[in-house]
Amino acid sequence: MIRNLRLTAAISAAALILTSCGGGGGDSNNFGGTPSPSPPTPTPTPTPPTYGDGGEYVAPAQEALTVTDVQTVIAQAVGEATARGLPSIIAVTDRVGNVLAVFQMNGAAPMAAASTETPKGTNPNPAGLQGAMVPATIAAISKAVTGAYLSSSGNAFSTRTASQIVQEHFPPAPTAVGLESGPLFGVQFSQLPCSDLSARFMAGGGAAGLIGPKRSPLGLSADPGGLPLYKNGVVVGAIGVMGDGDYGFDSNILDIDKDDEEAIALAGIQGFAPPASITANRISVDGTSLRFSDMNVGDLSPLQNNFAAIDGTAGALVAVRGYNDAAIIAGTAYGTEASGIRASTLAEFRNTDAFVLSDGTGTNRFPVRAATDAASVPGPLTEPEVRAILEEAFIVMTRARAQIRQPLDSRAQVSISVVDTHGEILGIVRSPDAPIFGTDVSLQKARTATFFSNSVAATQMLATPAAAPYVQAIRNFLNDPNALTGTVAFADRSGGNLARPYFPDGEVGRPHGPISQPIDEFSPFNNGLQLDFVIGNIGAHVAFVGDPMAADTPQRCTTLPDAAPGQNRLENGIQIFPGSVPIYRGDQLIGGIGVSGDGIDQDDMISFLGLHNAGQRVGGIGNAPTSIRADNVVVDLGDANVRLRYINCPFAPFLDTDDQNVCQGL
After folding, report:
1. Is the domain of 359 the same as that of 277?
2. What's the CATH code of the domain at 391?
3. Does any domain span residue 545?
4. What is the pLDDT of residues 280-305, one digit of tens each?
5. Given the DSSP bridges, would you call strands 121-122 and 111-114 parallel, antiparallel or unpaired?
6. What is the pLDDT of residues 408-424, one digit of tens each?
7. Cα(10)–Cα(172) distance, rounded to whole angstroms?
8. Dihedral of the CA atoms 523, 528, 530, 534 (nearest 10)?
9. Are strands 415-419 and 588-596 parallel, antiparallel or unpaired?
10. Bridge-partner residues for 320, per DSSP?
11. What are the start and end residues of every segment in region (Disordered) (predicted)?
12. Is the pTM here over 0.90, yes or no?
């Protein structure tokens, strides 16, 4: 029986995001480079590159999984599961989240329980999603989507990587107490089943049914057992394995887990493994190498890859309501019209490197347009202003040094979204190889910064039962009876400060932020307002998957009142790690920009500088006045005063100059 997920969590808190993503290498694994010769001195000095027109990126080759490939992946995974005596469910997706197959082995546990673990031990009174029973099929799908969405041609991340970067301390370990939270703290509640951006499976939908990015049934997963799949160095999808009935996370990276699910997934990716040079352990954050897998090829049994030998004997293909039929289909090649993400035309976006989301028939799903909120704000964003913001942010990205991508000194690759004050999408653009997860996340970030900076934020939250208790908690914490009435401009970094279980971030013994759960109750499955906003949507969707008579969650997250008929300001939930700023015309809020994909400080810089440069270009728009930015807010903790943060731009940010402090004074 599925536990009721529509619980409202207790009022709680969070803390300052002070982390940034750092580039770096790592030790090798079993899953390089030759120094370049010194260039000749140019005569005359070459003309510096002109940024903004294109040519800075190479789009990934259009590779895809075939039906035979999917059969091989499943057969190899089933062979390892059989050798380990762990009947499992194996899901395979393509890069844009289409579920290509789900194979259920005989005897596989049909349900999985979300972990009740907290930093203080098992929670005796599970809350949020803790202890929730969910179909094991959607746990496997969520793992596969995570492996595909977090990876690119420059980085291969797994669900174990995800586990490492979403917890209350980074790295998560008993000895890490006092360190700040993971750099992607909160990313687990993205790609939600209610997201208005994410496409949905359409049985018999032809090309239109295969467009992505698709939703993930439980958001992104931190449970080891999800690994990306590659062909010729290009990410083409991922495998997710669920077999032990425990849908959790790894709270201690100091030990090496003997994880059967991860071993089964590792067997599945043989022949489709990522290049060793880009696996997560080759990438570091704040000097800590990330983790890809605790299992090695040497831990595996002899590979079995005959799908015909296991189909109908070891188990069978199964349909998952809302995701796939009981069949194997081929994946779509990312970058093609059929995938739903393709290169833009010059009429859509002037930079020839730009990619956009398409509907499968050639139409841009989110073309650049003017704001829809003229009834709410004087001087709403115009189409030329939105275009300038997106173009200038894109230019900043092309100059920026990537921080979670190999080889070192690669260009950053991100997704960029702009919204109006109603949360309506005014345009989305991405670089050719940005991780897919950043598309939905950049939109969450743009909406979050805009919502919390809006004069109606408190009113709308008070009208939403799941969110109402947090209003007074925020006002008490900030000692500001007018908080959330538009008097303060919140970037996502600022709101994230308030969403950590320690304030300041990571400092043990400090209070929790007002929109986080206290540390005794906190977990990635019970983190506060972010989850409470959408827990009803997730619960409805879990019921829909398991009950043919149940209705699915609407393509609209949260139960906030409409900003205008059919317009919800947070239609894909909120995000609580950095990378967005609100947009102002003078002292009037008129929208928001969100960026996600290649390091949280890079995301901050691209949004902040992109907006600033757009204002310089077209006039009349820009960042919030310095007098109302959240970094003017000082929280009195009794024995210390702690200032909120607004944005944090990276060291050595650009590839073409040695400029530092590029955001200072703007």
Report:
1. no
2. 3.30.450.150
3. no
4. 999 998 888 999 999 999 999 999 99
5. unpaired
6. 999 999 999 999 999 99
7. 24
8. 90
9. antiparallel
10. 324
11. 27-51
12. yes
